[in-house]
Amino acid sequence: MIDAIKYMTKEISSMRIAITAAASGIGSYIATELSALGAQIAICDHDEECLEAFKENHNNISVTKADVAIESEVVDFFRDINSNLGGLDALINNAGISGPTANLEDVEFSDWENTLSVNLNSAFLCSKEAIPMIRNSGGGSIINIGSSSSFFGTPLRSAYSASKWALIGLTKTWAMELGQDNIRVNAICPGSVNGPRIEKVIKQEASERNTDPTMIKEAYLNQTSLRTFIDPEEITGMVKYLLSPIASKISGQAMSIDGHTESLSQIRTKEDHNE
What we know:
By secondary structure, the chain is an alpha/beta fold. The chain has a single domain, classed as NAD(P)-binding Rossmann-like Domain (Rossmann fold, 3-Layer(aba) Sandwich), CATH 3.40.50. It has helices at 2-8, 25-36, 48-57, 71-85, 109-136, 158-178, 196-209, 213-221, 232-243, 270-274; strands at residues 16-19, 40-45, 62-65, 90-93, 140-145, 183-190, 254-257. It starts with a helix and ends with a helix.
């Protein structure tokens, strides 16, 4: 009971937190914000160039080069965490790729496998290593980064959608398994996030559908009630909330930050109607 009370009242400033794929993008933003609050942060990434740039501006954050889809590299990452931080209170499974944009019959099996490996296997491998460390700390938190595609079918994005739906199943299952150890497991499910990644996806889909990228972007915006993309700080705000004592009774939940997604139906063109 004493350990549980300590865990429930633990502030972010005293936490040791691991974040995957965090040398750039959303992960980098989360790492920077949590570090500014006083947390001890360890990140990994497979992109050596991004890691070097990150290290130049974050000399107080532990950095490891690791591909979280490879078990041996995940083991090395958590060995570094134990050496540098002395334990772990929270894990943020942030690693993910957009995967192929194509009709199912045009998707290469290797692209399908790679998407599931990065988006799903990495969460399994990292959580497997993190759980004993978090348990030894008296409890803590695992946050999986899902997507609006965790709840909707996503045309032309079969591999991505499959991986993000599966992540919610893991979130709820792990919350059930780990609750007795005071370990909470939740998912944050953003809509399309402003930045280079969504712009790349839009261009890929426009090419696949032989239409203008502005039409695809407009279709994406119209899929939500608020007609908006999400900003990284909005995701970070939810991370801070789920890590904080005020969320100590929240587990097994998938929290959407998406401007209220109504559907992920794809844009229709004249060519579609004439087929």
